[in-house]
Amino acid sequence: MLAEGSLAPDFTLQDDEGKPVSLSSYRGKTVVVYFYPKDDTPGCTKEACGFRDAYDLFLAKGAVVIGVSPDKPASHGRFRAKHGLPFVLLADPEHSVLEAYGAWGEKSMYGKKYMGVVRSTVVVAPDGSVLKAFPKVSPEGHAAEILAEL
């Protein structure tokens, strides 16, 4: 994960409509960037819906939410529509942003090791620095955990 106080790496990824979105375009706002493994899976849905349900509270604190996963833009579009997600989901199929933020790493399931998304969140301050990093988070109650830090 990135060190708190360090400059958050800028990035440009496609949203669910294939339009490019850059972190730098949010300069001046607090940005909650959460990294998740896969659209429409139980844990990822729980986490996304937590951010959805608290979205107005994030906005009231001057923060925006961005989700990043390796899924393609079309998958993000279906996921956003199905669950009424009001925030941007970005596609990182090459894992470049996931790697830059320390959210891509070795995982294990049923004794097998593989590379995948480490569910984590980085809060980027209005000046582009890392305000807080949350490595290896649990989807349950994560949005409330982030709100408590803002």
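^ that was protein a. below is b, sequence first then the tokens
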Amino acid sequence: MPKTTEFLEALQANGYDYFAGVPCSLLKGVIRRFDEEPQWGYVSAVREDSAIGMCAGAYMAGKKPVVFMQNSGLGVSMNALVSLNVIYQIPTLIVVSWRGKDGKDAPEHLIMGEIMTDYFDGITLGEMKGLPWQILDPDDVQGSVTAITKQIDERKVPGALIVAKGILDASS
């Protein structure tokens, strides 16, 4: 059962107020709401690294940003994520779809689907060992968003909320 409304309410409850990203079919419920409801102020980016940069600027302007992307976009955004957000301690929530989960998807999604959590664990700098990540629990959407937000805010780093198929791909 899609949890789009519950998810958007959880983002608002945790203070998020700037949204940018690159659409993905697993996130289409949220993206559709952003397109239909301009009060969200969603900015669609042409590339994931551009969305990371826009969210960094929004953070510096006093906003609390969220980037939406497909997990294949993690590779595209690696340099911006590490050399901007990690180095300069810009806490940003990355809502990333889990394409290729359990080896089920189009072939181009299988490798990133398998290594995505290792990707976040592998981003280290000095004493910082990995970026926080959490899988969105459809039975506790608010708890999932609050837990990852706490880690992001405490550590002053970007962190990911990983979304499996069927949770945010419809408008309800």
